[in-house]
Amino acid sequence: MLPKKRGGKEIFWSWTKQNVGDKWIMTKLSARWMPPKKVIQAFESEGFIWGGKWAIWDNMHFEYRPELIKYNNIN
User: Fold this and answer.
1) Above 70 in pLDDT, residue 65?
2) Is 40's pLDDT higher than 90?
C-alpha cells in the first residue's frame, strides 16, 4: 500500500493524471517516487518485471511474468 504521493513525488501515472491531465507523461524522473534500488534489484533477480521501466510508468508495480522474460530473451 502506498499513498498517492510520497515525499512530494508522484507514484502512479493514473493518480498524477487526475491532477495534471495529459501532462502526466511529462513527469520528470526526478519527480517520480522510486522504490530503493536494492528492492528493484531483489525483485528483478527473482524474475519480476518492474513497472518503472514501462513506457506508461507504474513505479510501485512488480509483476511476475516468466513467459515474457523467456519470450524477450531477458536475463
Assistant:
1) yes
2) yes
